[in-house]
Amino acid sequence: MRARVRFAAVRYVAVLLLATQRWMPPAIMLVGLIAWLWVSPPVTMATVKFVLLALFALAAWLGFAAGAVEDAEKRQIAISTLGSARRLLVAQWLLAGVVAVVFPLTMLFGYAVGGLLLGRPVFTGQQVAAGAAAILVTAAAAAGIGLLVAQFLGGRPGWAAALLGCLSLAQAVPGVPPVGALLGTLPDQGPVRWSGVLVALGAGLAVAAGVLVAAARGWRRGFERPGGVAR
């Protein structure tokens, strides 16, 4: 039953995004950038690192779009129908994250499998595992950040795009989670040092959890009223 409710929430957000389509031009541009990075030889772990930077921008924008797609009145109705504001928030986060990672993960595994079939391995098994984990964590954190930005700039997409762009550029700074922390731990060649990778992944997951909690609290303050439905 709960799984059915979650699926209904994700489907509701997807229908809204498909109906609006205002989010599509920036998303298409970022997907095109990711595609260009993947087809620009040579494809190595350095390619994955650049993809992570573009992926952060894509997932953050999709998170913002999912969080800002409906006005307050429609959101109240959706929360009442779903029975919880958290369900709608999680649905928005899941949709943004999943849509963002489909193409990068497909390309990563495609190059890995294709290289094995041709006898010219592009990535080792450890590199594929580390790269896939980095992609998932980056999308999770970025989508949450986009949702949080939607709390404050939901009606100002231009300002939101500027802020998310600055945050995306900041990810190139070494040590800034999630991407900046991962850049220094993913080796271009050689074995993966999992101790550093796991610490960076943990920092990214902490960012994802923190921004989602902050977004949920923002919804609680904005929508919870005496006798309200947000919880």
Q: Helix coverage percent of residues?
A: over 70%
Shape summary: elongated
- State the low-pLDDT regions, or none: 223-231
- Report the C-alpha radius of gyration, rounded: 18 Å
What average pLDDT do the residues reach?
87
Count the beta strands. Answer: 0
Strand-pairing-aware structural class: mainly alpha
The biggest sheet, with number of strands, parallel, antiparallel or mixed sense and barrel status, is: none
Order of helices and strands: HHHHHHHHH
Task: Determine the N-to-C terminus distance.
Answer: 19 Å
| Proportion in β-strands | under 5%
Q: What is the helix tally?
A: 9
Quick structural summary:
The chain has 231 residues and is mostly helical. The chain has helices at residues 2-20, 24-39, 45-68, 72-82, 85-118, 125-153, 157-170, 179-183, 194-223.
Question: Can you characterise this structure?
Answer:
This protein has 231 residues and is an all-alpha fold. Helices cover 79% and strands 0% of the residues. It is built from 9 helices and no strands. It has helices at residues 2-20, 24-39, 45-68, 72-82, 85-118, 125-153, 157-170, 179-183, 194-223. Helix 1 crosses helix 5 and helix 6 (125-153) runs antiparallel to helix 7 (157-170). The radius of gyration is 18 Å and the shape is elongated.
Quickly list its features:
mainly alpha, 231 residues
Strand and helix map with partners:
Layout: H1 2-20, H2 24-39, H3 45-68, H4 72-82, H5 85-118, H6 125-153, H7 157-170, H8 179-183, H9 194-223
Helix pairs in contact: 1-5, 2-3, 3-5, 3-6, 3-7, 4-5, 5-6, 5-9, 6-7, 6-9
